[in-house]
Design brief:
The chain has 202 residues and is an all-alpha fold. The protein folds into two domains: 64 residues, Homeodomain-like (Arc Repressor Mutant, subunit A, Orthogonal Bundle), CATH 1.10.10; 125 residues, Tetracycline Repressor, domain 2. 79% of the residues lie in helices and 0% in strands. It is built from ten helices and no strands. α1 crosses α4 and α7 packs across α8. It is elongated. The chain starts with a helix and ends in a 6-residue tail after the last helix.
Length: 202
């Protein structure tokens, strides 16, 4: 490929990434309904028409971001299965809080702020939840964690601890007196969860 074409391709890729990053800021702060393409374009420092050119509009932008999140999650699931429970929980916790903007998109979706097929979304989440419960049940059967609590409750508790810093940051600050996204929060809840579930470390 000629040098000028390579430069043009590279510039287009950088522009596209700037738009996606700006959209992530806007959607995570305001949800899909509250986000405006003009505001996204301003954040990205581009002409608003480029959003339509690259993504077909606001909905296309959201779908691209959600697709990226699903791809990351699909890579995380098999990796976490290979780890013991506590290490697996920490992997999910770190992935969720490393860039909380993506987790906020999930929260907005859960609140119904989603332009796509909500039934398809619900089916996807049922599949994710069912797989997580089965994984927890298998860990209990293997003696890795206590069977004193139903696997559904253990799974729910794990999800809540991972998403609470994103959905309820003020509550975390009041209860723990730490930055909800901090390593200290992650360490404290991991240790507490391990003690609660009588986690086997090795």
């Amino acid at each position: 490929m000629p040098e000028d074409q390579l430069q043009a391709t590279s510039k287009a890729a950088r522009t596209r990434e700037r738009i996606l990053d700006a959209a992530l800021d806007e959607f995570s702060a305001k949800g899909y309904s509250g986000a405006r393409t003009a505001a996204i374009a301003k954040r990205a420092g581009v002409n608003v028409q480029l959003i339509s050119y690259y993504f077909g509009g606001k909905e296309g932008l959201l779908e691209e971001l959600l697709s990226s999140w699903q791809e990351r999650r699909s890579k995380l699931v098999p990796a976490s299965k290979a780890e013991l429970f506590l290490e697996s929980f920490r992997m999910v916790l770190n992935a969720t809080l490393r860039d909380p903007r993506r987790a906020r998109l999930v929260v907005w979706q859960a609140l119904g702020d989603y332009p796509g097929d909500t039934e398809a979304l619900a089916r996807e989440w049922r599949t994710v939840a069912a797989a997580a419960v089965e994984q927890t049940r298998a860990r209990q059967a293997a003696g890795e964690i206590s069977e004193d609590h139903p696997p559904e409750f253990v799974t729910l508790l794990s999800f809540l601890l991972a998403f609470a810093p994103v959905a309820l940051p003020q509550v975390i600050e009041e209860i723990y007196d730490v930055d909800p996204l901090s390593e200290e929060y992650r360490q404290r809840v991991s240790e507490a969860l391990a003690a609660f579930l009588d986690v086997r470390h090795a």
